[in-house]
Design the sequence.
């Protein structure tokens, strides 16, 4: 048993010497090799053209330019989303019975569990829409805009309601819209 212990000690000493020799040899080799510089970083990607030149052909100035004053936007055309951005067409209310619209729109739910249902309701209220052809009076147009903004506020979409209010021309701001604006400034 003594022979096996002494053999084990000799083997462990040999392994330790071999490991020490290996560790000492590695730094010596690396010191002898010349130091290499790291490669330079890649050039930045150039997005602009090398030379900015004048256009080959001058723009056509023969088209007529009309100068005039712009009228304020119609209340029916006020909206934040259009058909290309998830909203509805401006002909959304065409063919609707105005009395039915007056009953249904104020009853639009304000608390919705489904995010898709909520987004659909918001897009409905944020989309511009021309009133049914039967009645295009100023009073009815103001009612539709006020109702749309009030329903957005009732849903808690105060940022959208305030953005809609900011689009209303000064001459078309009603008392109801003024109140909604004041509430929106206090809440937002």
Sequence:
């Amino acid at each position: 048993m003594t022979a096996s212990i002494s053999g084990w000690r000799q083997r462990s000493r040999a392994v330790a010497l071999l490991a020490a020799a290996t560790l000492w040899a590695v730094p010596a080799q690396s010191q002898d090799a010349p130091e290499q510089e790291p490669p330079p970083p890649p050039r930045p990607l150039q997005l602009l053209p090398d030379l900015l030149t004048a256009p080959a052909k001058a723009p056509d100035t023969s088209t007529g330019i009309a100068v005039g004053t712009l009228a304020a936007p119609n209340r029916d055309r006020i909206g934040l989303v259009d058909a290309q951005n998830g909203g509805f067409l401006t002909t959304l209310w065409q063919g609707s019975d105005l009395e039915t619209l007056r009953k249904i729109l104020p009853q639009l739910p304000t608390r919705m569990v489904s995010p898709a249902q909520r987004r659909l309701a918001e897009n409905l209220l944020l989309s511009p829409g021309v009133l049914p052809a039967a009645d295009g009076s100023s009073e009815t147009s103001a009612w539709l805009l006020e109702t749309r903004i009030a329903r957005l506020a009732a849903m808690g979409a105060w940022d959208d309601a305030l953005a809609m209010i900011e689009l209303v021309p000064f001459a078309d701001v009603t008392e109801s819209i003024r109140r909604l604006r004041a509430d929106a400034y206090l809440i937002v």
Remarks:
- The chain has a mean pLDDT of 79.
